[in-house]
Amino acid sequence: MNPLHRQSLAIAALARAYRRETFTPADIIGEIHRRIQARGRDGVWTALVPEQALMQRAHELADQSPEALPLYGIPFSLKDNIDAAGLDTTASCPAYAYRPARSARTVALLEAAGAILIGKNTMDQFATGLVGIRAPQHPVNSFNAEYIPGGSSSGSAVAVATGLVSFALGSDTGGSGRIPAALNNIVGLKPTPGLISTAGMVYANRSFDCVPIFALDCADAQSVFDVLAVDDPDDPYQRRQAAPSRPPLAERDFIVGVPTGEQRTFFDDDDAERCFERAIEQMVGLGARIVDVDYAPFKEAGDLLFEGPPLAERLASVGDFVRSHARQCDPVVAAIIEKASGYTAVDFVRYQYRLRELEVEVDRAFSSIDLLMVPTAATAYRIDAVRADPVRLNRHMGHYTYFANLLDLCALAVPAGLRGNGLPFGVCLLAPAGRDRALIPLGSRFQALQGLAPGAPVLQPEPV
């Protein structure tokens, strides 16, 4: 077999290959093009950079040293609500397409660091969904084609899991940078809201949308995070002051909160429950002290996301288009966005008051723990089941994710082994704002315990 066909796209592995001159960026681009062609219409892509342009970019990099650029020759992709010059932004609604005049700040930073953009990825339309199938065409789970890939950043996660790119950017409002990571056995780093610029994208909830990083492992995610976590003077929603400093997470004797036993919900998925119990045992083995935490304020805050006035931000962002192009929009997505029109200004004020009360309760919980660990997804559903019951099952997927951005938390979704049916299971580590880098070393240690190669087995899904 051609050694290129076996080459991992993990950032560290590619960096070694470039330094040793085993392969060049042009070699890797050629191999990626072969892999994409071999998979056929897999629903992962909404647009690809032409191969000729990719090769030109690769040859330009050949004149530079791999040591000079932190992401030299590293291939990446974007969720299709993030702007890239030369490619349409559609948010997985072809009728919405526009051609941006310039790339998003995140894309510009990555390319300046030496990374190579391969293309744009499919998503749940207008980033409304955690299932990954609310689009004209969509990818499938990279382990079992009968199951959902997770959303809304579905294509971004599958592209990483199946070895088409080294990393991908998504967006995360209520879990879209974590659920697809868990269902495809990769890492999803959701930054503190405002830490990475969101300028140049189609927003769901602009006030707390985040740009998460999908990668094969935590070290790769940190390599990208270090490039992106810089100031953007053109983004009014970026943090203008540092989060309060906190001591680094200890190697041992750190405290991990988990929901109390009666508050753990798996929607009758006993296999997922066993996986979470095993993850708790593994965390103890890493030196953690486990304590029960009242999950009620986290859950109530999460419920506000789609059962309260925050929906109005989606209506402000794309509501006019959805109303005037109803036939071109996914009906479930359109109904969710239109629901926001029923809330009043008084409803919004009351929501703000209650959210602030919940923030105080959550701050109190974090005063006695270093981090919170929850299942990333309580279960995983078949595609046909979600089509039959789209709203309720989607809500189940967000049970452990919806609250994070509303409560100003950072999060790291990490693989936690395989379930009995062969599908991946994952946990999510959450901490107060600004503790992003503190989570990453622990995530690396936890992932190493799994003894499982990141990403997916070779799977050629049926076109969807």
Strand content: 5-15%
Count of helices? Answer: 16
How far apart are the first and last residues' alpha carbons, in Å?
30 Å
Ranges where pLDDT stays below 50 over 5 or more residues in a row are: none
Share in helix: 25-40%
Compute the gyration radius: what is it?
21 Å
Care to count the β-strands? 11
Q: Going across the major beta sheet, what is the strand order?
A: 1-3-2-4-6-5-10-11-9-7-8
CATH architecture of the largest domain: Alpha-Beta Complex
CATH fold topology of the largest domain: Amidase signature (AS) enzymes
The major β-sheet equals: 11 strands, mixed
SSE succession: HHEHEHEHEHEEHEHEHHHHEHHHEEH
List keywords for this structure.
464 residues; alpha/beta; Amidase signature (AS) enzymes; 11-stranded mixed sheet; 13% strand; globular
Task: Explain what the structure shows.
With 464 residues, the protein is of the alpha/beta class. The protein has two domains: 7-228, Amidase signature (AS) domain (Amidase signature (AS) enzymes, Alpha-Beta Complex); 254-407 and 418-442, Amidase signature (AS) enzymes (Alpha-Beta Complex), CATH 3.90.1300.10. Helices cover 37% and strands 13% of the residues. The protein is built from 16 helices and eleven strands. An eleven-stranded mixed sheet has the order 1-3-2-4-6-5-10-11-9-7-8, sandwiched between helices. The two termini are 30 Å apart. The model has no long low-confidence stretch (mean pLDDT 95).
